Amino acid sequence: MLKQAAVCALLGACAMGASAGGLVIGEFALADHPDGSAAPPLYGLRLDNVIGSGTSTLSMDHFGDTVLTVYDNGGDLSINITGTLWGGQISGHAYVSAEAYVIDMNYTVNVNPNGGGWVVAGFDAANSGSITRVSDNMSWDLFTTTDGTNAFVFRPDDHRLPTDGNDWVGRGWLSTSGTGSDSHGGNQDWLFTATEIPAPGSAMLAISGLALMARRRR
Questions:
Q1: For the segment 172-194, what is each residue's pLDDT rounded down to a tens digit?
Q2: Cα 120 vs. chain centroid, distance in angstroms?
Q3: With 70 as the cut, is the pLDDT of residue 197 above it?
Q4: What is the CA radius of gyration of the chain?
Q5: What are the φ and ψ backbone dihedral angles of 70, each rounded to 5 degrees?
Q6: Which of 41, 75, 81, 170 would be a feasible disulfide site paired with 154, CB 3.0-4.6 Å?
Q7: CA quadruple 7, 12, 17, 19: dihedral positive or negative?
Q8: Helix axis angle, 200-217 relative to 2-20, nearest 10°?
């Protein structure tokens, strides 16, 4: 009974994930990039003068639950990044007082296929989210800025990696205002690597296979 309940719960979660944000066309587990300009410590998100004064970075590796999901919403694409990060202000390449933060960022406008992955073109205030400090529920709004062309790039292009393969890298430019600019100084941006997670359909096939094997053993 417990095994059946677990399977049903997993199938239900897969179904809800697909319906909550459209059809899932890509899901990726995120990790810190090894070549962040403020590292060590390694990080996947940098928010100077936002969550702390001076250089402030956040690691995706500490909890390991940060996920990027790409949705097809009837022809319009969107990207969601969510998970728990760890970090804060840095002094001498070490955290002053690291804490947990929950991130939820949504790119819903101008998401286009590019280079085998996706880019978010230009600035739009609709591309927004938040980061929340777990200890006191303090929250900051996040919006995008651009590198002059794109607000976010996610594709297998080995960006700043010492490899010759097709490793996924995400990078994007952020602010805390919906105007496309900010006055915090320093850097506020994503820089992370990613590993593709098998599609929900593959997970369901695996579950069906396990269930069939269990029946045969009986």
A1: 999 999 998 887 889 999 999 99
A2: 14
A3: yes
A4: 19
A5: -105, 130
A6: 170
A7: positive
A8: 160
